[in-house]
Every structure is written in structure tokens, then in C-alpha cells.
Amino acid sequence: MKTIPFSFDLTPGTFIPTAYDNYIRRQYSALKGQYLDKAAHEAIIAAGDPLSYEVYEIRRPELTGEILHGISILHPGKVGDEYAMTKGHFHTVRDTGEVYMCLKGTGAMVMETEAGETAVEFLVPGRVLYVLPNWAHRSVNLSADEDFVIFFAYPGHSGHDYSTIEKYGFRKLLVERDGQPTIIDNPRWGG
Ligand code: PAN
Ligand code: ZN
User: Fold this and answer.
1) I want to staple 148 with a disulfide (CB 3.0 to 4.6 A). Which of 85, 105, 128, 170 is the partner?
2) Does the CA dihedral 42-44-47-50 come out positive or negative?
3) pLDDT at residue 1, rounded to an integer
4) Is 50 contained in some domain?
């Protein structure tokens, strides 16, 4: 772990950090139960379970005062009409926010609180998003052929709670309707 201030570059074009400590890969099977079209999801998994997204983390101690940061690269894809997405999570320590900046592609952040408030923000390169404390967040790639790349930063002690979202998914889903990204209610929430 570095003990003096440091900097790093992002590789032109791919935005992969030139130095990182941790690399996470998630295949489509990591989102079991989350996509609306279960048969289409199973078919994608059966046909080789391709890589859906990758996260490059600059590791820092998981302490208040530290800022965890890195790059997430969500590849384009569709499961039925639904766009490729990350698992999404609450932070275990609920009152911790997160800053995202879109570097490449076209996507969205789907967000909600446990009380049931929902929000969707669309992201293009150069746009910065602030995810408020207490809001679960999931990114979605709305492009047919381009990676959706974002820089993220959040407090070191946040932690990740995936299980709350895994139960019913997010209240809102992003699907293609008449060629356009469209926000619909998730039927698992009774919508
Ligand atoms: C991001 C996410 C990253 C991958 O770093 O962890 O985009 O998404 P999942 O963690 O939901 O698979 C972040 O929000 N960290 O807190
Ligand atoms: Zn987060």
C-alpha cells in the first residue's frame, strides 16, 4: 500500500488504469434472477456465460478518511429487451455516497432508497453523477456496440451490501422499446 501521494494514468481508448491493485470480472451468471427475461438470460449463460463487466480498483484501507476509487467497464449487451447492467448494491454503511464520472459510452445509473424513492440519471462522457448516501445504485449500458466506462470514488468504510437488491432487484428496469431506452416498473415489486 502506497504511503506517499500517487497518481496514475488511464490507457487512451480503453481507460484501463496503468496501475491498479485489484481486478474484478463478472459474467452474466453473476446476475442470476435479476434480468426480466429469465429464458434469455439462461440461454446466454448456457451459450458460454460471457464476461459482462470488469472493475479495476486502486486498493486503499477500508477506513473512514480513505477514498476507494477505480474504473468500471460495462460491456454492451442485451438480455431479451433489457440492457446489460451491473449487480448493483447498497453500501453496507448506508450513509455513504459515491461520485461517478462517465468517461466513455452511453449509459444510466438506476438508483433507489429502501423507502422506495427511485431515480435514473443518464450518463455520457464528461457527465458527473453524485449518488446520495442511502441510495442503491446500478449502472446500465445503453449502447449496442460501445463499452460504458465510469470512474468511481466512495468512502473507504462504505462496504457493499448486494443481498438486499438480490431479493427483488431494483424497482425500475431499463429496456428497449421502439428502439429507445425506456424505464419500466419491475414486476417483482408488484408493478
Ligand atoms: C462501483 C461498483 C462497480 C461494479 O465501484 O462496485 O461499478 O458494480 P457492482 O459492485 O454492483 O457489481 C461502486 O459502486 N462501488 O461502491
Ligand atoms: Zn457503490
Assistant:
1) 105
2) negative
3) 84
4) yes
Q: pLDDT means per 10 residues in the chain (191 residues)?
A: 94 97 98 97 98 98 98 98 98 98 98 98 98 98 98 98 97 98 96 51
CA distance 106 to 124: 5
Ion ligand 2, residues whose Cβ is below 5 A away: 98
Which range marks the domain in which residue 31 is found? 22-185
Q: Which of 71, 58, 72 is nearest to 5 (CA)?
A: 58
Provide the 8-state DSSP code for 45. Answer: H
Quote the pLDDT of residue 34.
97
pLDDT at 186: 98
Counted domains in the chain: 1
- 15 part of a folded domain: no
Identify the CATH number of the domain in which residue 40 sits: 2.60.120.10
> 0.90 exceeded by the pTM?
yes
Q: Whose CA is nearest to atom 1 of ligand 1?
A: 152
Q: How many CB atoms lie within 10 A of CB 12?
A: 7
Ligand 1 close to Cβ of residue 154 (< 6 A): yes
Task: Report whether residue 74 contacts ligand 1, using a CB cutoff of 6 Å.
Answer: no
Q: Bridge partners of 99?
A: 130, 153
